[in-house]
Amino acid sequence: MLNSSQQPLHDHTNQCQLDAIAQAMSIKTQFNMSRDCFNSMVTSWGRSLPNGHKLAKSWYEAKKILRALKMPYEQIHACPNGCVLFMKEYADDKYCAKCKASRYVERDLSDGTKKQSKVPANVLRYFPILPRIQRLY
Fold first, then answer.
1. 3-state secondary structure 32-56
2. For the whole model, what pTM was predicted?
3. 16, 8 contact by CB (below 8 A)
4. Which of 25, 78, 20, 65 minimizes the C-alpha distance to 46?
5. Who contacts 131 (Cβ-Cβ below 8 Å, separation ≥6)?
6. Where do the structural domains in the chain lie, given as residue ranges?
7. Over its length of 137 residues, how does the chain's per-residue pLDDT go in tens digits?
8. Distance CA 71, CA 62 (A)
9. CA–CA separation, 45 and 76 (whole Å)
10. Which of 42, 77, 83, 112 is the most exposed, fewest CB within 10 Å of its CB?
């Protein structure tokens, strides 16, 4: 698996498949893209690459490749407005300490109240630096 991750994305580049997927996932996280948007983005990029390229064709495939390569990442819940990461002193909070936005997706009930689901409103995927550096060497 490690050897396949070091193969170039296509014949005319030195960029490896893992690097391209990590960059695409980083862009997805940075701009809070939906899965459909990510799929459209990699499909568009794939059309501009030569035939036989190794870029993932969807979010599911990219995630599957990262999992197969044992590239660990941490999921950290974040405020939908980008104020706070729900870790350390905010780990148990259900609302943002700065803007009071809900940590979880809220649904409206029939009586006009809102109830929090267990689905986070925003998730940050963090690729720890040490495993990335270890993979280089």
1. CCCHHHHHHHHHHHHHHCCCCCCCC
2. 0.53
3. yes
4. 20
5. 71, 72
6. 1-71, 73-127
7. 565 567 788 888 888 888 888 888 888 888 888 999 999 999 998 888 888 888 888 999 888 877 776 777 888 999 999 889 998 998 899 899 899 999 899 888 888 788 888 889 888 888 888 877 776 76
8. 11
9. 28
10. 112
